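Hi U.,

Before I forget, here's the chain from the pilot set. I'm dumping it here mostly so it's searchable later in email.
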Amino acid sequence: MTATLEVDRIEAIYGQAAPVLRGLSLCVPKGQVVALLGANGAGKTTTLRAISGLLPFENGALTAGSILLDGRRVNRLPPHRLARRGLVQVPEGRRIFTDLTVDENLRVATWALTGRAAHMRDGRDEVYSLFPLLWERRRHRAGYLSGGEQQMLAIGRALIAEPTVMLLDEPSLGLAPLLREEIFAAIARINRERGISMLLVEQNTVMALQIACYGYVIEQGRVVLEGPAETLRTNREVREAYLGPGKHIGRQT
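Structure:
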C-alpha cells in the first residue's frame, strides 16, 4: 500500500534537554487512519509537531531522521509550505481565532490554498454540511462557542485547506461523551468520503482504535508496539495499560 506520510528514525529535543523522540518511525498509508497511542509525556504531540514543522515555535528541533510526504523529504519545510502541500494539523486545544467569527475563521484558512490550482467549490459549504451547528453559529465570535463547537471549527478550518494528510491532536479532549462520538463520527466520515490520510493522537484508545486501520504505541519517544487496529484492540498489554484489566475494545458498529 502506498504511503502518504513516512517518518523514519526521527529524534527531537526541546532546548538543551534530553531527547524527547528517540529514533521514532511510523507510516501512514494513503487514505487510511493511523492511531498514535501512549501515556502523557510519551512524545505523541512532539511527533506531530516534528511532522508539521511546528517544533521550532516551541523551542524544539528535529535533530535526526527524515520525514517524507508523498515520497519527498520535507524535514526543513516551514509549516505554511507544508500546509500548501496538503499537510495540515488540527492542534490540541483547537487554537482558533477567538475574536473572529466562525465564518471568518474558515475564510482565513483559505490562505493555505495560495499557489495551488483554482478549486471549483466553496469549502465552507462542505464544512457547514458536515457540521450544521457551525452554520447556525457562523456569525458568532468563535470564542463564545462551546468546546465541541470549537473542535468542529478547528477540523473545519483544516478541511478548508484541502489537505491530503491531516494530523489530529487529541480531538476529544475535554468533550462530553456525546460530543466525542459526534467528533469521531465526523472524522471517520471525512476519511471515508474524502480519502484524507490521518495520523490521530488520542488518549481515548477505544475510540481511536475503532476508526483506525493501524496503530503505534510509543513510550519515551520510541515505538514499543505496533500492529493492525484489530490486533491492538485485543492485545492484553494495550488493554491493561489504557483500559484496565479485563476490559475489551469492541468494534464500532
